[in-house]
Amino acid sequence: MGANTAQTDLYRQAADQFGAAVERLAAAYEADPERRRDLAQDIHFQLWRSFAHFDGRCSMRTWVYQVGHRVGASHVLKERRTWSRLVSLEDFDPPPDRNPVRVDGGRNLERLHALIQQLKPLDRQVILSYLEGLDAASTGEITGLSPANVAMKIHRIKNILAKRFHEGGSHVERPS
């Protein structure tokens, strides 16, 4: 019972500190409100389960994001119907450099989330970690990418999102 109590205490601490981040991750991985609630609940459950194996070799923040992204990515992969809408960075020609997307209003934020939700899971993990304020090293720890690769992906994703956002669309389409 002592191990289970420690696990629950770690989970409660993580939920208190990072509960809002879990909700944002769920919203970024799932547009449908009902499925988003289920996804957030699944992330919380898997997070609680994961603390049975938490050994402190990484920060609690990194641990929460690793679990959250893993559950979110699994959720996306299970939704086979969305495969045709997901895009890879390799599907795009590099757009000209632009300033990062500036979000100033709920409608713009919704458009940005719609674009992010269409990225493949790894690219989504990278940009969501960036938006949550994680540095390239922490994001690399979560995704298994090198910090240099993370920085390159962030740059490319930001350019793609900015281009699509400024074009006025809420869909990322594959070039023909």
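[next item in queue]
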Amino acid sequence: MSTKNYVGGFGDYRSSYKDEYGYNAPDYASGYGFYAVDFEERVNMDRLRRGRLERARQKLFKEKGLGAFLSLDEKNIIYITSTYRPFWTMPASGLRYALLVSTSDAPILYEQGDIGYHIKRMAPWIPAANIKYAITGASWIGVAMGKEAREAQLKKMVRQIKEDLKANKVDKEPLGIDFYDEALINALRAEGIQVEYSKAVEAMIEARMIKLPEEIALLKMAAMIGDAVFQTIADTLRAGITEYDILAAAFHTAYKLGAEVWNGMFVTSGPYTWPNLRATTGRLIRPGDVVYFDTYNMAYMGYRTCYYRTFFVGRAPKSIKDAYQRALDWLYEAIKAIRPGVTTKDVAEKWPSGPEVWGWYGVKDEDMTAGNNWAHGIGLSLYEPPIIWRAVSLDYPVRIEPGMTFAIETQEGDKETRQGVRIEEMLVVTEAGVEIITKWPVDEITEVPIVR
């Protein structure tokens, strides 16, 4: 069944908005230019900054009862401070950290060395007095210093944090922390600070799971860049080039449009497409090859993509097209099931059991299908809750709510050619169902003609 049939059956998610006259209204959130202008609001970054901070405060302080929150997890630092993040601080380097207290609206940012100088000028929404220099000693950077140096640095770091807790009158209240660094937690407790790990992690997961309208707009803009990457791949792909040539062209398009690639994007071809290696080897592309590409971990303003499409060099044989159709049906039957109020079990049940369909190459249980047919939340990190996967969702369902955002992906192998296909969509859960935000055609495998 093609997506055209699905559209006829349960609504065209790509034109789901109506204006006051009943016409399909343009979705401006996925049609913005990437630069600020005076004639159109586009993404309201101030509202994004305030909205994320308010959601974090609500979950941390009002619902979990914490007095303060210390963040070393870069995704959460971004969420509460909206500050610049170089690659090397991901995911929790200890090179910078942030403190949020229940008695003050503004976060305190402890920034790495020279970068702090610039952040004071770049981030006027944080009072200059709240931007301080980090004392590096936690996480992997502390381990790299050696045991004695780390212990000395942690003592200084804890004193710094304790002073700010006291100044804000929350030093006797529980301090949430989002990264489990045993040495840091012990050092904080040695100073009489009550540390809570689980509550803080739960609060930030809950805050980030439901997206603000501005976050959804940024995810749509990231998906737009993904669309452009696939056009570049279609223009570049041919027999006689290597996977690295394709990857280089994709990176060029992503950065040209203002994206960042944290550690992702790969191209897989030929015999590596089944089972799915999920990596680039650099092999030479040949006629008759399946080639698929994943824009995973490409980000726009920090918001990630995970977005597969599959190509064939030449005319795809029937066995490949049949495999593609099975993957497409699994994908869209699952999408059809997603709507507010259902659970992840309702969606996972739309997929066949792993041993049933893939036993022919050794799959014996669902634990061997991790990442095959599944969906995951997506936002400031590649994998956010909830996960939809038969191995967990059938027994531990999670309720789906409006404002959740997913990447949903399926794959299938072809016994005849020993190659496989992989496809993926990104979507937003709306009050009415879902809206698909990825646009590269998915109805059939994209064939790249061989020029004679």
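[queue empty]
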